[in-house]
Amino acid sequence: MGRASPPDAAKGVPDLIGPDLRVLFCGINPGSLSGELGLHFARAGNRFWKLLHAGGFTDRVLLPSEQGLLPALGIGITNLVERTTTAASELGNEELRAGALVLEAKAVALRPRFIAVLGLGAYGSAFRRPRAVIGEQPETLGGATLWLLPNPSGLQAQYQLPEMTGLFRSLHGAVFERG
Fold it and tell me: What domain range includes position 152?
């Protein structure tokens, strides 16, 4: 029995999308384990799946291998940059800015109601808004309400789980309040 070829790091992890997305979560880029497994937020220390549940988006904490359940809930996942890296700090400003243009094209094509970018520093570089703050942004992206959340990586220590839960709940409230 043969082994599958390792994923191409340049291709990253495929977008998780479906029709009628309420919110499209946008990570910075796939980490090495995510790239290896082909799953978004695959590392055990990543808090994304806990935050989705705690924020009210899912009825339980999903495993990364259950990500396919999200589009039926109106939730999608993409990345600013497709390229897999060991750390997001390996990405340059030009790569992030190019990713912002790709994300805008996805927003136009997919028409999600909200886009939630996960990562303050990456967002600031990608969208040339170094003073951006967490929460709803003043501009839209491809017609979608643009929201900024902290990176859920366990390596990001500035925001702890209780505070991040409140931020995800705020997004959930806006998503479901506005239809």
Answer: 23-177
Give the model's pLDDT for residue 156.
Answer: 66
Q: Which residue has the tokens 């990001």?
A: 156
Domain of 38, CATH number, reads 3.40.470.10
24-71 tens-digit pLDDT: 999 998 988 999 999 999 987 789 999 999 999 999 999 999 999 999
Separation between Cα atoms, residue 14 and residue 157, nearest integer Å: 28
Does 124 reside within a domain? Answer: yes
Pairing mode of beta strands 23-27, 144-149: unpaired
Percentage above 70 pLDDT, the chain: 91
Specify whether the CB–CB gap between 40 and 64 falls below 8 A: yes
Residue 9 belongs to some domain of the structure: no
Residue 14 located in a structural domain: no
Distance CA 120, CA 37 (A): 26
Please state, in angstroms and rounded to a whole number, the distance separating the CA atoms of residues 99 and 177.
29
Q: Is 3 left (phi over 0), alpha (psi -120 to 50) or beta?
A: beta
